[in-house]
Amino acid sequence: MAAPGGISNGWQVVDTDGLSVSKGLTRTGADALVSSWLDIDVEFGCQLRVVPWEPTESGELSITPANFDLHPTIPINHALNLPNIERGVERDYLRKCIAHHDEAQAAYGSAKEAAARAKKHRVKCDGEVARLQAADETEIAAAGATLADRIKAGEAAPLEPNLKTGRAALLDAEARRDAALEACALLDSELAGAKQHLDTAASNVQKAADVVIRAELMQAVEKLEALWVQTVPLRQLLESARYSGFPPDQRTLKALQPPEFPGRPLLHGCIANYRKALTREAEASLADQPPKVTS
Questions:
Q1: What 3-state DSSP class applies to 143?
Q2: Does residue 213 contact residue 271 with C-beta atoms inside 8 Å?
Q3: CA separation (Å) from 7 to 52, 61, 70, 209?
Q4: Quick one: the chain helix, strand, coil %, rounded to 5?
Q5: What is the CA radius of gyration of the chain?
Q6: What torsion do the CA atoms of 82, 84, 89, 90 make, to the nearest 10 degrees?
Q7: CA separation for the pair 285, 26 (Å, rounded)
Q8: By C-alpha distance, which of 4, 44, 3 is closest to 27?
């Protein structure tokens, strides 16, 4: 498919809502951007598609230079509804949540094993009841046939049948089976409670990990704010110098431009991996995370 107007960079990448992620691209560049997002975040990458793009009336390519527009924020906010933890003790809180999760996981494992053993015992009791019930029915049938023969023979006092199994043994087996059913119901209930407790503990660990990330992001904000305090007067000085006979040279112009952010998509992958790593190890570090999102 040819680009609109015959221009090579007449393509854009849009999401499912039709909002432009990046425009003024070549077809190869647009395909590469989608492929990059598929490597970083499959769910978001699958929402992207390449479509034709028309330039502005002036003929200029309206490409927004900001990298934040080229890689929009996915509409998820992990910083919402997090617990308020005292500054500086975020990792201590995470350690406690991980320890609590480990305890909940061990309790769930024990409850699961107990429920499995109870089910196995119940199946054994069911089999015993079925065996005794079949034997009882066979013996009752045989005793009934013998009794019928004695009655037909005119016996004055028919003998009581001699049952080896006895109804009492069957009733005892049924009682054991009913007790096993009650045990299964009780242990299944405890298992459900342990699972709910484990799910809550896992959610708390993830929130605690997000608290750590939020705190580190706030530290980055503070550092950036401090840098701006130093940067703004310098920019103001260089901008003002041109009106005093000192026009900016190429080096000055370059210094006045906002820096590019090379590798930002890879940093996105590092943050996603960092979030997962913190749920397993409270000492995890962002710097140690791989650039591609792992499972």
A1: helix
A2: yes
A3: 10, 11, 21, 48
A4: 65, 5, 30
A5: 37
A6: 10
A7: 38
A8: 3
Count Cβ atoms below 10 Å from residue 47 Cβ, excluding itself: 16
Query: What sign for the dihedral angle of Cα 80, 86, 87, 93?
Result: negative
- Taking the C-alpha atoms of residue 27 and residue 50, their distance in angstroms, rounded to an integer, is 8
**What pLDDT shows up at residue 213?**
95
CB 161 within 8 A of CB 146: yes
Cβ distance 127 to 182 under 8 Å?
A: no
C-alpha 65/C-alpha 177 separation (Å) is 74
What stretch of H or E contains 138? helix 90-152
What tokens does 62 get? 């309206």
As its CATH architecture, domain 90-259 has Orthogonal Bundle (1.10)
Q: Tell me which H or E stretch contains 25.
A: strand 20-25
SS3 49: strand
What integer pLDDT is reported at residue 1 of this predicted model?
54
Both tokens assigned to 71: 């890689």
**Tens of pLDDT, residues 223-265:** 999 998 998 899 889 888 888 888 888 888 888 887 766 555 5
How far apart are the two ends of the chain, measured CA to CA in Å?
A: 36
Whether the predicted pLDDT of 42 surpasses 80? no
The whole-angstrom separation of Cα 18 and Cα 224 is 33
- Give the separation between CA 79 and CA 236, rounded to whole angstroms: 35
Q: Whole-structure pTM over 0.70, yes or no? A: no
CA torsion 186→187→193→197, rounded to 10°?
160
Start-end ranges of CATH 1.10.287 in the chain? 90-259
Check residue 263 and report its DSSP letter.
Answer: T
Q: For tokens 């990458």, name the residue.
A: 45
Q: What is the 3-state secondary structure (H, E, C) of 81-116?
A: CCCCCCCCCHHHHHHHHHHHHHHHHHHHHHHHHHHH
For residue 287 the two structure tokens come to 């710097």
